[in-house]
Automatic annotation (TrEMBL):
This is tRNA-uridine aminocarboxypropyltransferase. One of its GO terms (molecular function) is tRNA-uridine aminocarboxypropyltransferase activity. It catalyses: a uridine in tRNA + S-adenosyl-L-methionine = a 3-[(3S)-3-amino-3-carboxypropyl]uridine in tRNA + S-methyl-5'-thioadenosine + H(+). One of its GO terms (biological process) is tRNA processing. InterPro entries: DTW (IPR005636), DTWD2/TAPT (IPR039262). It comes from Poecilia formosa (Amazon molly). Belongs to the TDD superfamily. DTWD2 family. Its EC number is 2.5.1.25. Keywords: S-adenosyl-L-methionine, Transferase, tRNA processing. Signal peptide: none annotated.
Protein backbone atom coordinates (compact mmCIF):
# COMPACT_ATOMS: atom_id res chain seq x y z
CA UNK A 1 0.00 0.00 0.00
CA UNK A 2 1.41 3.36 -1.00
CA UNK A 3 1.43 5.88 1.85
CA UNK A 4 2.89 8.67 -0.25
CA UNK A 5 1.07 11.90 -1.08
CA UNK A 6 -2.01 11.58 -3.31
CA UNK A 7 -1.53 13.59 -6.50
CA UNK A 8 -4.68 14.36 -8.56
CA UNK A 9 -4.01 15.02 -12.23
CA UNK A 10 -6.26 17.43 -14.15
CA UNK A 11 -6.91 14.75 -16.82
CA UNK A 12 -8.33 12.21 -14.39
CA UNK A 13 -10.63 14.86 -12.90
CA UNK A 14 -11.97 15.91 -16.31
CA UNK A 15 -12.58 12.31 -17.23
CA UNK A 16 -14.86 11.99 -14.22
CA UNK A 17 -16.81 15.13 -15.12
CA UNK A 18 -15.05 17.37 -12.57
CA UNK A 19 -13.29 20.63 -13.34
CA UNK A 20 -9.54 20.52 -13.54
CA UNK A 21 -7.58 21.96 -10.58
CA UNK A 22 -5.29 24.67 -11.94
CA UNK A 23 -2.58 25.28 -9.32
CA UNK A 24 -1.47 28.59 -10.80
CA UNK A 25 -5.04 29.88 -10.79
CA UNK A 26 -5.42 29.01 -7.08
CA UNK A 27 -2.14 30.76 -6.29
CA UNK A 28 -3.32 33.89 -8.09
CA UNK A 29 -6.54 33.84 -6.06
CA UNK A 30 -4.55 33.68 -2.81
CA UNK A 31 -2.30 36.54 -3.88
CA UNK A 32 -5.34 38.65 -4.71
CA UNK A 33 -6.97 37.84 -1.37
CA UNK A 34 -3.89 38.77 0.64
CA UNK A 35 -3.42 41.84 -1.51
CA UNK A 36 -6.92 42.98 -0.59
CA UNK A 37 -6.16 42.43 3.11
CA UNK A 38 -2.99 44.47 2.82
CA UNK A 39 -4.96 47.47 1.58
CA UNK A 40 -7.28 47.49 4.59
CA UNK A 41 -6.59 50.35 7.03
CA UNK A 42 -4.69 49.31 10.13
CA UNK A 43 -6.55 50.01 13.36
CA UNK A 44 -4.10 51.60 15.76
CA UNK A 45 -5.20 51.53 19.38
CA UNK A 46 -5.17 55.08 20.64
CA UNK A 47 -3.49 55.41 24.00
CA UNK A 48 -4.98 57.89 26.39
CA UNK A 49 -2.84 61.00 26.87
CA UNK A 50 -0.68 60.54 29.96
CA UNK A 51 0.34 63.16 32.50
CA UNK A 52 4.12 63.51 32.40
CA UNK A 53 4.41 64.06 36.16
CA UNK A 54 2.15 61.49 37.84
CA UNK A 55 2.17 59.06 34.85
CA UNK A 56 -1.60 58.71 35.09
CA UNK A 57 -4.07 59.24 32.21
CA UNK A 58 -4.77 62.97 31.98
CA UNK A 59 -8.48 62.49 32.71
CA UNK A 60 -7.62 60.94 36.07
CA UNK A 61 -4.48 62.98 36.78
CA UNK A 62 -3.44 62.97 40.45
CA UNK A 63 -1.19 66.03 40.31
CA UNK A 64 -3.61 68.12 42.46
CA UNK A 65 -2.76 65.71 45.30
CA UNK A 66 1.02 65.91 44.83
CA UNK A 67 3.16 68.53 46.59
CA UNK A 68 3.58 71.70 44.53
CA UNK A 69 7.34 71.33 44.83
CA UNK A 70 9.28 68.07 45.30
CA UNK A 71 9.97 67.29 48.96
CA UNK A 72 13.47 68.22 50.05
CA UNK A 73 15.01 65.09 51.58
CA UNK A 74 18.59 64.00 52.22
CA UNK A 75 17.79 60.29 51.96
CA UNK A 76 18.20 58.63 48.57
CA UNK A 77 15.82 55.80 47.62
CA UNK A 78 16.72 52.90 45.34
CA UNK A 79 13.63 50.95 44.24
CA UNK A 80 14.56 47.58 42.73
CA UNK A 81 11.47 46.68 40.76
CA UNK A 82 10.33 43.30 39.47
CA UNK A 83 9.67 43.54 35.68
CA UNK A 84 6.02 42.51 36.15
CA UNK A 85 5.33 45.73 38.07
CA UNK A 86 5.99 47.84 34.97
CA UNK A 87 2.82 46.62 33.28
CA UNK A 88 0.52 47.12 36.27
CA UNK A 89 -1.97 49.93 35.85
CA UNK A 90 -2.30 50.90 39.53
CA UNK A 91 1.35 51.32 40.48
CA UNK A 92 2.50 53.39 43.44
CA UNK A 93 6.15 53.97 42.50
CA UNK A 94 5.42 56.66 39.83
CA UNK A 95 3.50 58.62 42.49
CA UNK A 96 6.43 58.28 44.88
CA UNK A 97 8.91 59.49 42.26
CA UNK A 98 6.66 62.45 41.41
CA UNK A 99 6.84 63.65 45.02
CA UNK A 100 10.64 63.61 45.31
CA UNK A 101 13.47 65.56 43.64
CA UNK A 102 15.18 64.04 40.63
CA UNK A 103 17.83 61.56 41.73
CA UNK A 104 16.18 60.86 45.08
CA UNK A 105 14.01 58.00 43.81
CA UNK A 106 15.99 55.72 41.51
CA UNK A 107 14.06 52.84 39.93
CA UNK A 108 16.07 49.83 38.71
CA UNK A 109 14.09 47.10 36.95
CA UNK A 110 15.14 43.45 36.95
CA UNK A 111 15.12 40.09 38.71
CA UNK A 112 18.84 39.41 39.03
CA UNK A 113 21.47 42.01 39.85
CA UNK A 114 25.25 41.69 39.83
CA UNK A 115 28.30 43.92 39.97
CA UNK A 116 29.10 43.61 36.27
CA UNK A 117 25.67 44.70 34.99
CA UNK A 118 24.73 47.01 37.87
CA UNK A 119 27.93 48.60 39.20
CA UNK A 120 26.14 51.64 40.67
CA UNK A 121 23.70 49.49 42.64
CA UNK A 122 26.56 47.24 43.78
CA UNK A 123 28.44 50.30 45.07
CA UNK A 124 25.31 51.46 46.92
CA UNK A 125 24.95 48.02 48.53
CA UNK A 126 28.57 48.13 49.75
CA UNK A 127 28.13 51.61 51.23
CA UNK A 128 27.94 51.43 55.03
CA UNK A 129 25.29 54.18 54.97
CA UNK A 130 22.89 52.00 52.98
CA UNK A 131 19.87 50.28 54.53
CA UNK A 132 17.63 47.68 52.90
CA UNK A 133 14.00 47.65 53.93
CA UNK A 134 13.11 43.98 54.24
CA UNK A 135 11.43 42.30 57.26
CA UNK A 136 12.91 39.20 58.84
CA UNK A 137 14.65 37.81 61.93
CA UNK A 138 17.84 39.74 61.12
CA UNK A 139 16.06 43.07 60.61
CA UNK A 140 16.46 45.93 63.06
CA UNK A 141 13.68 48.32 63.97
CA UNK A 142 14.30 51.43 61.85
CA UNK A 143 12.89 53.81 64.46
CA UNK A 144 15.04 52.37 67.25
CA UNK A 145 18.08 52.50 64.99
CA UNK A 146 17.37 56.13 64.11
CA UNK A 147 17.09 57.12 67.77
CA UNK A 148 20.18 55.21 68.83
CA UNK A 149 22.52 56.43 66.10
CA UNK A 150 21.19 59.95 65.56
CA UNK A 151 20.67 58.73 62.04
CA UNK A 152 19.20 62.00 60.72
CA UNK A 153 22.65 63.60 60.81
CA UNK A 154 23.84 61.21 58.09
CA UNK A 155 22.70 60.97 54.47
CA UNK A 156 21.44 57.45 53.96
CA UNK A 157 20.49 55.27 51.01
CA UNK A 158 17.43 53.02 51.37
CA UNK A 159 16.80 50.04 49.08
CA UNK A 160 13.18 48.94 48.67
CA UNK A 161 12.11 45.86 46.69
CA UNK A 162 9.01 46.51 44.58
CA UNK A 163 6.89 43.51 43.61
CA UNK A 164 4.40 41.06 45.01
CA UNK A 165 5.39 39.54 48.34
CA UNK A 166 6.55 36.29 46.72
CA UNK A 167 8.49 38.21 44.03
CA UNK A 168 10.17 40.40 46.65
CA UNK A 169 11.17 37.36 48.72
CA UNK A 170 12.60 35.62 45.66
CA UNK A 171 14.56 38.72 44.63
CA UNK A 172 15.99 39.19 48.12
CA UNK A 173 17.07 35.58 48.52
CA UNK A 174 18.60 35.21 45.05
CA UNK A 175 20.61 38.46 44.95
CA UNK A 176 23.59 38.23 47.28
CA UNK A 177 24.33 41.96 47.02
CA UNK A 178 21.05 42.67 48.85
CA UNK A 179 22.47 40.89 51.91
CA UNK A 180 25.32 43.42 52.27
CA UNK A 181 23.40 46.48 53.60
CA UNK A 182 22.00 46.68 57.10
CA UNK A 183 18.55 45.08 57.08
CA UNK A 184 15.75 47.12 58.67
CA UNK A 185 11.99 46.88 59.06
CA UNK A 186 9.11 49.14 60.07
CA UNK A 187 7.45 48.37 63.38
CA UNK A 188 4.86 51.12 63.37
CA UNK A 189 1.36 49.75 63.93
CA UNK A 190 -0.04 50.78 60.54
CA UNK A 191 -2.68 49.31 58.26
CA UNK A 192 -2.26 49.69 54.52
CA UNK A 193 -4.25 52.45 52.81
CA UNK A 194 -3.77 50.64 49.49
CA UNK A 195 -7.17 48.97 49.71
CA UNK A 196 -7.57 48.27 45.98
CA UNK A 197 -4.89 45.59 46.03
CA UNK A 198 -4.80 42.49 48.23
CA UNK A 199 -2.08 42.28 50.90
CA UNK A 200 -1.12 39.06 52.74
CA UNK A 201 -1.64 40.58 56.19
CA UNK A 202 -3.05 43.73 57.73
CA UNK A 203 0.37 45.23 58.47
CA UNK A 204 1.85 44.67 54.99
CA UNK A 205 2.34 47.99 53.19
CA UNK A 206 2.70 49.06 49.57
CA UNK A 207 6.04 50.32 48.24
CA UNK A 208 4.92 53.95 48.49
CA UNK A 209 3.74 53.46 52.07
CA UNK A 210 7.03 51.80 53.06
CA UNK A 211 8.96 54.69 51.54
CA UNK A 212 6.71 57.27 53.23
CA UNK A 213 7.24 55.79 56.69
CA UNK A 214 10.98 55.24 56.18
CA UNK A 215 11.53 58.80 54.96
CA UNK A 216 9.52 60.29 57.82
CA UNK A 217 11.66 58.34 60.30
CA UNK A 218 15.02 59.10 58.69
CA UNK A 219 14.22 62.75 58.03
CA UNK A 220 12.54 63.10 61.46
CA UNK A 221 9.52 64.70 59.84
CA UNK A 222 6.08 63.03 60.17
CA UNK A 223 4.61 65.48 57.66
CA UNK A 224 6.49 63.63 54.89
CA UNK A 225 4.40 60.52 55.48
CA UNK A 226 1.17 62.49 55.30
CA UNK A 227 2.18 64.25 52.06
CA UNK A 228 3.32 61.04 50.33
CA UNK A 229 0.16 59.14 51.26
CA UNK A 230 -2.15 61.86 49.92
CA UNK A 231 -2.00 60.78 46.22
CA UNK A 232 -2.35 57.10 47.20
CA UNK A 233 -5.55 57.83 49.14
CA UNK A 234 -6.86 59.85 46.18
CA UNK A 235 -6.07 56.99 43.77
CA UNK A 236 -7.92 54.45 45.91
CA UNK A 237 -10.87 56.80 46.46
CA UNK A 238 -11.23 57.38 42.70
CA UNK A 239 -11.07 53.66 41.90
CA UNK A 240 -13.66 52.81 44.55
CA UNK A 241 -16.01 55.50 43.21
CA UNK A 242 -15.77 53.91 39.75
CA UNK A 243 -16.52 50.29 40.57
CA UNK A 244 -13.42 48.93 42.29
CA UNK A 245 -13.94 46.78 45.38
CA UNK A 246 -12.17 47.03 48.72
CA UNK A 247 -9.56 44.24 48.90
CA UNK A 248 -9.26 42.88 52.41
CA UNK A 249 -5.98 41.25 53.34
CA UNK A 250 -5.68 37.48 53.24
CA UNK A 251 -5.24 37.61 57.02
CA UNK A 252 -8.58 39.46 57.41
CA UNK A 253 -10.38 36.97 55.15
CA UNK A 254 -9.00 33.97 57.03
CA UNK A 255 -9.78 35.37 60.48
CA UNK A 256 -13.35 36.20 59.50
CA UNK A 257 -14.15 33.00 57.60
CA UNK A 258 -14.38 34.89 54.29
CA UNK A 259 -11.53 33.14 52.44
CA UNK A 260 -13.30 31.44 49.52
CA UNK A 261 -10.33 29.90 47.69
CA UNK A 262 -9.25 26.25 48.06
CA UNK A 263 -6.84 25.77 50.95
CA UNK A 264 -3.31 24.82 49.84
CA UNK A 265 -2.06 21.24 50.10
CA UNK A 266 1.59 22.23 50.50
CA UNK A 267 2.53 21.98 54.20
CA UNK A 268 4.71 25.09 54.16
CA UNK A 269 1.90 27.17 52.65
CA UNK A 270 -0.54 25.80 55.23
CA UNK A 271 1.83 26.80 58.05
CA UNK A 272 2.19 30.29 56.57
CA UNK A 273 -1.59 30.69 56.44
CA UNK A 274 -1.91 29.43 60.03
CA UNK A 275 0.71 31.97 61.07
CA UNK A 276 -1.29 34.73 59.40
CA UNK A 277 -4.24 33.80 61.60
CA UNK A 278 -2.30 33.56 64.88
CA UNK A 279 0.57 36.07 64.64
CA UNK A 280 -0.51 39.71 64.53
CA UNK A 281 3.00 40.92 63.67
CA UNK A 282 3.79 38.78 60.66
CA UNK A 283 4.47 40.25 57.25
CA UNK A 284 5.33 37.20 55.15
CA UNK A 285 8.02 38.30 52.75
Amino acid sequence: MDNGPCVCSPVSLEENGLPACDGSYADDELVDAFGDLATLPVEVEERRPTCLRCRRPQKVCLCPFLPQQPLEVSTCLYVVQHPAEESRVLRTVPLLAACLPQGKCNVIVGRRFNEEKHPELAAVCRNDKTLILYPGPKSQNLEELAQRLEISAVKHNVIIIDGTWSQAKNMFLKNSMFHLPKQVQLNRNLSSQYVIRTQPSNICLSTLECAAVALSVLEKNDEIQEILLRPLKALCSFQLQHGAQVHHSKEHLLRNGMYDKPMPKNKRKIKRMEKLMTDHNVCPR
